[in-house]
Amino acid sequence: MSKAKMIKRELDVPCRFEYTNDDGKLVDAFPGVNCGFGCDTCGWNPEEHKRRMETGEWVRINEYRAPYSGKLIKLPSPTYRLSFCPLP
């Protein structure tokens, strides 16, 4: 088990879930995302996900800027994204 997964298990992060593996054992699992341990504002946190879905608004977008290259990427129509207010 990776160090990050061990830390997540010790912290009992809200994104932890259990599933039955191929051997029939119940095991801990975590979303396969880069984690900064900012659970209060993470979309994988069920409470934060619920807040975003309740307060957010789906808006139509045509393009987005790639984070590393800064290049403008055209998106197929119709494409929507969830827009919500971040926590203070």
Q: How far apart lie the N and C ends?
A: 35 Å
Please compute the radius of gyration using only Cα atoms: 17 Å
* DSSP summary, beta strand count: 4
Binned, the helix content reads 10-25%
Approximately what portion of the residues adopt beta-strand conformation?
Answer: 25-35%
Number of helices: 2
Low-confidence stretches: none
SSE class: alpha+beta
How would you characterize the largest beta sheet? Answer: 2 strands, antiparallel
Strand order, sheet with most strands: 1-2
Report the mean per-residue pLDDT as an integer: 90
Oligomer: single chain
Which of globular, elongated, flat, extended, rod-shaped describes the shape?
elongated
Q: Please write the string of helix (H) and strand (E) elements.
A: HEEHEE
Describe it.
- With 88 residues, the protein is an alpha+beta fold.
- Helix content is 22%, strand content 33%.
- The protein has helices at residues 3-11, 46-55, and strands at 17-20, 26-29, 57-65, 72-83.
- Strands 1-2 form a two-stranded antiparallel sheet. It has a two-stranded antiparallel ribbon with strand order 3-4.
- A hairpin with a 6-residue loop joins strand 3 (57-65) and strand 4.
- The longest helix is centred in the middle third of the chain and has 10 residues, at 46-55.
